[in-house]
Amino acid sequence: MPATIDPPSETGAPPPGPTGTAAWRARLVPFVKFGMVGTLGLGWDTASVYGLRPLIGLTGATIAAYFIAATFNWLLNRHWTFRHVAHADPVLVQWARFLLANALGFVLNRGMVFTLFMTMPICRTIPALALAAGSLAGLFANFNLSRRVVFRHRPDAPAGQGQPG
């Protein structure tokens, strides 16, 4: 697919941001990284459910595990997927934004998980099946909201000028 060329602005300056193939790549790479982090999150989620289930039951373990996995996912996304971002918010504010922004993903994720628990007995026996389906259900919503609401640039920082930590 050839790169598209946007005409210069009235001032003669090039258009902001990448175009064509560069724009496609600029969106695909973070999405793939986000998906890889999500796959690790599925591991943390699953391990937490299996570890907490004997202590607090399947329902409690499933809810607690989401927050454990979401916290690990936020950390990895902050330091790897979106490391190029000059973060607009302090760390704890960003973590809270991540949890809030991903509330839609939480509803899609855990809605799928609990629906499968109720309708497919094998998912109650092997919760990892329902957890994997739930992760996929929330992936696209979580990525888009994370990119636009959580891991956003400081207004005074140029795009691509990340900050350490």
TrEMBL record:
It holds the Pfam family GtrA_DPMS_TM. The chain crosses the membrane at residues 55-76, 97-120, 126-145. This is GtrA family protein. Keywords: Membrane, Transmembrane, Transmembrane helix. Residues 33-151 form the GtrA/DPMS transmembrane domain. GO terms for biological process: polysaccharide biosynthetic process. Signal peptide: none annotated. The keyword Transmembrane helix applies. It is a multi-pass membrane protein. Belongs to the GtrA family. It is found in: Membrane. Its main location: membrane. GO terms for cellular component: plasma membrane.
